[in-house]
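Thread title: Can someone regenerate the structure for this chain?

I was given the following input by a collaborator and told the matching structure tokens would be attached. They weren't. Posting the sequence so someone can regenerate them.
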Amino acid sequence: MKRTKRLELQLHDAERSEIVRRAKAAGLCAATFVRFAALDYPMPTKRINVEAEAVAALNRIGSNLNQIAKSANKVGLLDAAQERLLSQLAAQVSETVTTIQHGNKS
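Best answer:
Regenerated them for you:
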């Protein structure tokens, strides 16, 4: 799984609303939309709503898994096997998102 780092950005309410609106119109989350726009990447073609909703739901699940793992690890609630399992689940969520976004190339 690729490592990513968070970049925080301060925006006025109107700016944030406009970015979110444009991202939704493109069928993307705001972070992906901003990344593509900032790096001058071509925007991916819009997927049908079911795919966009599935990707968004899976991304939320992956994010929740990571937050659970961080919190539980911080207070020592996870053993090594549980940590590996959470990591594997997060990787599976990420792979599923990629498959939905780019199609199954197998």
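The radius of gyration is 16 Å.
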